[in-house]
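Work Package 3 committed the consortium to producing structural models of liganded targets before the mid-term review. Because experimental data for this complex are still outstanding, the team generated a predictive model from sequence and the ligand definition alone, so that downstream docking and mutagenesis planning could proceed in parallel. The input record is reproduced below exactly as it was submitted to the modelling pipeline, together with the SMILES string for magnesium ion.
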Amino acid sequence: MFNRLVFVTGNANKLKEVKAILSEGGHPIEIDSQSLEIPEIQGTTQEVAKDKCRRAAELTGTACITEDTALCYAALNGLPGPYIKHFMIEVGHEGLNNMLVGFPTKAAWALCTFAYSAGPGSEPIIFEGRTDGSIVPARGPKVFGWDAVFEPDGTGLTYAEMPSEQKNKLSHRYKALEKLRAYLQSLPVTEDTHAS
Ligand SMILES: O=P(O)(O)OP(=O)(O)OP(=O)(O)OC[C@H]1O[C@@H](n2cnc3c(O)ncnc32)[C@H](O)[C@@H]1O
Ligand SMILES: [Mg+2]
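The resulting structure, written out as C-alpha cells with the ligand in place, is given here.
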C-alpha cells in the first residue's frame, strides 16, 4: 500500500483535517501537499471531482488526490452542492439560512468526494462520504467554511462547536477517507509505492 500521497488543494483547513484523519489508524498515510488553484467545471459532484483530479495529475506529473466538498439542501434538490463555495462567499452564514426561509425542511447533507489518479492520463477513481444534518443559525467559531451552520443529525452541535476529534470521527470527509484508505491498502506494492 501507499504510505505517502500528494494532496492538491488550496484549502488549509481541509489539509489539516485530512492529515489528522490519515495519521490515525493502523496504517498511517503521510500527506505531501501542493497548493494549486485548479479551475472547477460545472456538473455533478463526480464530474467536478474527476475533472479537478485529472488536471491536478497533469500539473503535478504524479499520482495525487484532490477533494471536493458539496453542501446539499434537501429543499433545493441538492443545491448549492458543489457550488457552495461561491454561495458562502457571496451570502455568508446568514444568507445560507435565509435561502431556506419559506421551505418546510432545513435538512441538508455534507458530501465529500475524493478523487485519486495514479498519474497523468490515468482515469480518477472516486470515494464519497456523506453526513446528514440540518442548516441552523450560526453557532461556534467561524473558522472553517460553513461549519457553524451545519448540525449533523443526533449530535445537537454544529461542526464548529465540536472538538476536532469529534468532527473527524463522523464527518463527510472522514467517511470518504476511510474508503480511500481501504482502496490504497488493497493496492499491490509496486516500484512507485513503499511497503509499510
Ligand atoms: O482547492 P480546493 O480543494 O478545491 O479547496 P476549496 O476551498 O476550493 O474547496 P471546494 O472547492 O471543495 O469548495 C468547498 C467549500 O466548502 C467549504 N468547506 C469544505 N469542507 C468543509 C467543512 O468540512 N466544513 C465547512 N466548510 C467546508 C470550503 O471552505 C469551500 O468554501
Ligand atoms: Mg475548490
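Reviewers should note the following from the model. Residues 9-11, 14, 40, 67-69, 84-85, 88, 144-147, 159, 173 surround inosine 5'-triphosphate (ligand 1) (CB under 6 Å). These observations will guide the Year 2 experiments.
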